[in-house]
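This section describes the prediction task in plain terms. A model, or a person checking by hand, is given the sequence of a single protein chain and must write out its three-dimensional structure as a string of tokens. No templates, partner chains or ligands are provided. The sample shown here is typical of the held-out split.
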Amino acid sequence: MKFIKWFKEIRKKNIALAGGKGAQLGELYNSSFPVPEGFVITSAAYKHFIESSHLKQLIHSKLNKMNVEDTKELEKVSEGLRKSIISYNIPEDLKHEILSAYNNLKGSVAVRSSATAEDLPEASFAGQQDTFLNVKGKKEVIECVKKCFASLFTARAIYYRTKNKFSHEKVLMAVVVQKLVNAKKAGVAFTINPSTNNEKEILIESVFGLGESLVSGSTIPDLYIIDKENGKLKSRKENKHILSDSELNEIVNLAKRIEEHYGAPQDIEWAINGRIYIVQARPVTTAKAQFSTIKWIKLFAREYAVQYTEISLRSLSSEVKDINPFPFYEQIYIPEGNNQVCYADESKWEKFLASLVKEYGIEGYRKFEKVFLKTGRQYENFCKKISQKNLKNASNKALAEIYKDYQRLCVRYTFFIWAAYFLNEHIAEQARKLIHSKIGKKENPHKYYGAVFTPPKKAAILELIYTISSKNNLSNKELHKLYEKFKWIPCLDIHNTPWTFEQFMKYAGHIKKKKQEKIMLFNGLLKALKANYKEKKLLEVARQFSYVKDLRDDFRRKGIFYIRNSLFKEISKRMALDLGKLSYLQEQEILDFLDTGKITGNTDERKKGYAIYYDKNREIIVSSGKDIPKTLNKLGISAAKEFSEEIKGIPASRGLAQGAVAIVRGVNDLDNVKEGNILVAVTTHPDYVPAMQRAAAIVADEGGVTSHAAIIARELGVPCIVGTRISTKLLKNGDKVEVDANNGWVRKLKFFYD
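The expected answer:
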């Protein structure tokens, strides 16, 4: 036969002839897997049909002048091409071969599209072309073959090829015709857990019948997760108890054999009618993290240790997919000074941010606020409840369960820490642009900043500053009361200790007594800017987020304050480790100790610096010491950059200042800031306030007009520039600089007079 190939004639190398699906089925059939009999109408047949019907010119002319980003145009062209293809008759020679082969199968068949660029290891066209089940009769078979040919031009297939740079002319269509398994049960088996990308798990879903309801999503399948190494069932969610234990075991064994045959994770479709049949297998293309092709962007730098960094990674993953609209894993934290710098896949980060804005932005703010407050209170209340328990007599197993509950709540809450930060940055920038567009270049915007970006309510650090700076004298009783109310503020991470009363008094002593600056009222701002309804809403949400951004830290610091002195104190005691070192262990390492009594993580090495990221199996990897350069090389990250001598940033609190630079890379550097210094940091947080009080100006790599540095600087009346990106790299301790916070410039000075 010229246009037909039976499965026994096809191997995996024949993709160009049989398409991805056909080549896979031929390979499985000839490797003694239980594949139902069938044949492939080859890509040569499709080419013969297109050329003989003069459709080639029509397809070329329509697709080459179309804008795939215009959804209406894309749908219109797609529908027109498919109708044209289905309207033509299949050439008689081809029709004769198809029907002769069909007669040999007898009975009902499945007719499946099999494109020549389908089921490739680097790209998946799955679900873009059509499949027809329970097809019976010569006329119906021919019609379904034409529909498969036409499905090469569905809107989603055209768009996918265009965006992934596959030539429309070079991608051809083959069609699989396969004896139908009149399935009593059907489903899929993934040899990698697709929700977590864990290669050590097999995920199986099953339904009654042919499996169409599973693909369409019209029914809830039974779900099983199996340990790939030992074959044991890890979890199941059964609605209908579809599979017997023996059927489940056989599917697992077949799935493992197919993965072993191909040497890569597989997405397998199976059906049961007396015995188990394999009706399709394709590589899982989402399993590989293509780190070498990622364009990394720097997001932020923070003074965290391993455990909280791990929680940060997990908080943006699908572990919290019910509240995270666009989870992703392509992130890495690498050491820089005393901070861990987070880099992310730029394209995926932009999609994440766009989805975040869409879900929780201006229109979704109330939804965000409600879920944020609920999750924050759950986290804080859990920690407080645990702090009131006597854990000394608890077993290691009981401690492990409490610890897992804490970690789960902490991951959920941490999502809102990052969401609030980035939503605030995004919406504040929109508000800043609006203010500038309204007032033009003639008027200074800072009085408007105060009205929008001063939080409507005061979170802890602002409340403390306001209380101390607005009263002339506080009694010893009042100071002790403030101490008890706010002593948890320094608890940024497990290794950070709460204030002693002496430390609190030193902190309070640096807060200047000052007359509170009168700022424009918010309603006055709206009137002055002549804001319309949409603009008012933007400015109001920007104002609310300036409060939420501060409040998010209050929940976390209180939670850590409660939990470090209870649960973590007890765990560190049993591990014979300093409490601070505990924060340099991963979750699994702590759980392993509580299970086996052995400590596996190297805390001393990690304290010097570490890189932490997800590998392709979605497992969190920590490298330290000599492994860090190898990790960066593997992930394609280079931290070396050249910088100019002039630094541009965002003016956040107006004013001019000159002074000597004092670089602050962490809390240990705060004492280096002397009266009149220019404090330069990656970012600031509440622990920095005493040093900020001494500074003549503040310069930060990160942040916008509602960042911590900006708000505190405005509260203190100190000039401030944020968002410079490079100040901590270009400047050195002792450099003499001028900070022009009216225009956003930091300049090195050749001559400086004290």
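For orientation: Confidence is low (pLDDT under 50) at residues 118-128, 286-290, 639-644.
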